[in-house]
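Chain A, query sequence.
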Amino acid sequence: MAKRAKKPKSVLRLPDLDYSKSAVLNSLASLNSRRSYEHAIRDFIEWYCSEPRLAFNKTVVTRYRMALEQRRYAPSTINLRLAAVRRLAYEASDCGLLNPDLGAGIRRVKGAKRLGVRVGNWLTVEQAKKLLAVHSGKHLRDLRNHAVLAMLLGCGLRRAELIAVKIEHFELREEHWVLADLIGKGRHMRTIPVPGWVKSAVDHWTKAADLQSGVLFRAIGKTGRVGNCGFTAKVIWSIVRETASSCDIGLIAPHDLRRTCARLCHQAGGELEQIQFLLGHVSVQTTERYLGCKQRLQNAVNDQIGLEPASP
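Chain A, predicted structure.
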């Protein structure tokens, strides 16, 4: 006689939650996404299990959102936590652990509203040149850090993309150096043009470090020995922060150099579509936010379009 299928539950215990969490993490391709979702789901499970046998439903997840708001978390943090909980509910429902109606209700829980727009941080051409000039020495660490900053400012790479660059990624296409078929955020593949001055900075580093293949940027030991493997994205943070601090630019992040690359491309006459290709954005609206464009009413773009009557 065939065994009777288990009826989906409304209250999930710790083994069910752990099983669903593993299903969520296994479905994510990005290491960063896995790390963020694991932390978010762990936080929810601790909160959920601390309450007396709550049903896993829309009402409970709404209460969890209110608890996050009471902790004074930013809307973006709350929405990330809720996205992880929605994914947890989906996997639990898909595995037959949670009632599908309850899972559908959880996915309808609204996120926290974000009021206002975060101000971006962009460097001027003079500030960018000042930043690049800090590591102008011939020591290995100077050559490496200069090449790191050149790649961030000249190619608009994300931190995770930069630490994944290999020497083999550099290829000549249409008589121009590019990073060919680089896998970026969301597993999207793109080819990134590399300006001549950036390639020159990279060549100085690879020649001094005697690198022929493999990961481009690597750790340097106290004795000056170059390691065989790359470093983490946190090293990129420290390089940018320390360099900016040494030349009195202020507190900036690696992503600010990506924004700066986008705006400088636009100011130099770059087309919006080409900047979108460079940055690897799916949406052109995202690229527009990176440019920090503001509407000009004086000397507006439609003042001189060739249709105005000739002067008498």
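The longest helix spans residues 31-50. The radius of gyration is 25 Å.
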